[in-house]
From TrEMBL:
GO-annotated molecular function: ATP binding; metal ion binding; phosphoribosylamine-glycine ligase activity
Annotated PANTHER family: PHOSPHORIBOSYLAMINE--GLYCINE LIGASE, PHOSPHORIBOSYLAMINE--GLYCINE LIGASE, CHLOROPLASTIC
InterPro entries with a match to the protein in the record: ATP-grasp, ATP_grasp_subdomain_1, PreATP-grasp_dom_sf, PRibGlycinamid_synth_ATP-grasp, PRibGlycinamide_synth, PRibGlycinamide_synth_C-dom, PRibGlycinamide_synth_C_sf, PRibGlycinamide_synth_CS
Family, similarity comment: Belongs to the GARS family.
Organism placement in taxonomy: Bacteria, Pseudomonadati, Thermodesulfobacteriota, Desulfovibrionia, Desulfovibrionales
This protein's name: Phosphoribosylamine--glycine ligase
Class of enzymatic activity (EC top level): ligase
Cofactor(s) the protein needs: Mn(2+); Mg(2+)
Source species of the chain: Humidesulfovibrio mexicanus
GO-annotated biological processes: 'de novo' IMP biosynthetic process; purine nucleobase biosynthetic process
Catalytic activity reported: 5-phospho-beta-D-ribosylamine + glycine + ATP = N(1)-(5-phospho-beta-D-ribosyl)glycinamide + ADP + phosphate + H(+)
Length: 429
């Protein structure tokens, strides 16, 4: 079977890498792919936003499964187009993809489904939003309603910061039409975790917990990014709490989407905040997180091709998803200036040396092939990922590998996993 993986990030390299080792996969095609996917798949220069082009490619190649990596093609309807063409697609239809494509839609569905989440208001008028902020007080979280590449969220600690965020999104249009409407919600306090589940519209199979690191710099300081590293499992959400947590944030959403006539198929990602009152849902994504995908796939022992087909065809069984008991940790190596403007085209060295270390895989994100070598082409460039019997061991291996790779001005956080290590030590684990 040929598999088409849509996207060009570290998540897509991880997906292509995992699928390429599957005996049931004859070939993996990446559209448009990157320098890493070129090593395990065939890159085809079709943008992930070009639904017509992607469908023409899938039909011409006789693709047996389409895997949508990022959210944009799902929101644009790639799963609907695949359904019309009779091609299985791993990912929800455009209506269900609004769980990520529209923050207002997601919050409304959460409320209807009884999912615990922060109190909120939805506003399309900036005057009404300002009045709400002044009356409600801070701290608040201001979110652009639409897709903003993971960056349309501002945690405002003061009323002035919230008002400035509203002006940026709704008046200055910093995120384009994504900010035409906003969600303003109470800021929750606690530790975050990511909880993902494979879904076939009715049944689900849980992946282990993970924790992302959104801030650019150590100590969770600096500007928000797409993610500077992740690890799995996250001690804040231990395995003995998975089933209970799934009843709070996974099953109710599957039930509600089915009631709305659009059963959710693919990966449902719940971003959780563990507060003093228990877990609360911050957001839903409708695809694998990046960089959470990298450590999760390093741990996955099940047959990814069969899991994805079962999700698409409505025959998922929980025992299909098996994971290694080891821990995995990913450190993102970024270009200078990220998440702002950054240079491109810098030669990357040490990839083979890092990959040769035991239990290590370097996933490429913002890379391209040039003159037979690998150069930078994005802000988040590499996701250096390692397995270990403990979180501390996985961290040590990952950072040893990070020391082998580099490019001009490269930077990374040095504290990925520290919160999990501290929590484990506090429990005597």
């Amino acid at each position: 079977m040929k598999v088409l993986v849509i996207g060009s990030g570290g998540r897509e390299h991880a997906l292509c890498w995992k699928l390429s080792y599957n005996p049931g996969v004859d070939a993996v095609i990446a559209a448009p792919g990157n320098g890493g996917t070129a090593q395990v798949a065939r890159n085809v220069a079709v943008k992930d936003s070009d639904i017509q082009g992607l469908m023409a490619l899938a039909k011409a190649e006789g693709v047996g499964l389409v895997v949508a990596g990022p959210e944009a093609p799902l929101v644009a309807g790639i799963a609907d187009a695949c359904a019309a063409a009779g091609i299985p697609c791993f990912g929800p239809d455009a209506f269900a993809a609004r769980l990520e494509g529209s923050k207002a839609f997601a919050k409304t569905v959460m409320r209807e489904a009884g999912v615990p989440t922060a109190p909120f208001g939805v506003f399309a008028d900036v005057g009404e939003a300002r009045a709400y902020v002044r009356a409600h007080g801070a701290p608040l979280v201001v979110k652009a309603d639409g897709l903003a590449a993971g960056k349309g969220v501002v945690v405002a600690r003061t009323v002035d910061e919230a008002l400035e965020a509203l002006d940026d999104m709704m008046v200055k249009k910093s995120f384009g039409e994504a900010g035409a409407a906003v969600v303003v919600e109470d800021a929750l306090q606690g530790e975050e975790a990511s909880f993902l589940a494979f879904c076939d519209g009715e049944q689900f199979a849980l992946l282990p917990s993970a924790q992302d690191h959104k801030a650019a710099w150590e100590g969770d300081t600096g500007p928000n990014t797409g993610g500077m590293g992740a690890y799995s499992p996250a001690p804040v959400l231990p395995q003995d709490k998975y089933a209970e947590t799934a009843e709070l944030c996974i099953r109710p959403i599957l039930r509600r989407m089915a009631e709305l006539g659009h059963p959710f198929k693919g990966v449902l990602y719940a971003g959780l905040m563990f507060t003093k009152d228990g877990p609360m849902v911050l957001e839903y994504n409708v695809r694998f997180g990046d960089p959470e995908c990298q450590p999760l796939l390093m741990r996955l022992d099940g047959d990814l091709l069969q899991i994805m087909l079962a999700c698409a065809e409505g025959r998922l069984a929980p025992d299909m998803v098996r994971v290694r008991q080891q821990t995995a940790l990913c450190v993102v190596v970024a270009a200078p200036g990220y998440p702002g403007s950054y240079p491109k085209g810098m030669a990357i060295h040490g990839l083979a040396e890092a990959d040769a270390l035991p239990g290590v895989k370097v996933f490429q994100a913002g890379t391209a092939v040039k003159d037979g070598g690998i150069v930078t082409s994005g802000g988040r460039v590499l996701g250096v990922t390692a397995l270990g019997d403990t979180l501390a061991e996985a961290k040590a291996r990952a950072y040893e590998a990070v020391g082998k790779v580099g490019f001009e001005g490269a930077f990374f956080r040095r504290d990925i996993g520290d919160k999990g290590i501290a929590r484990s030590r506090a429990k005597g684990v």
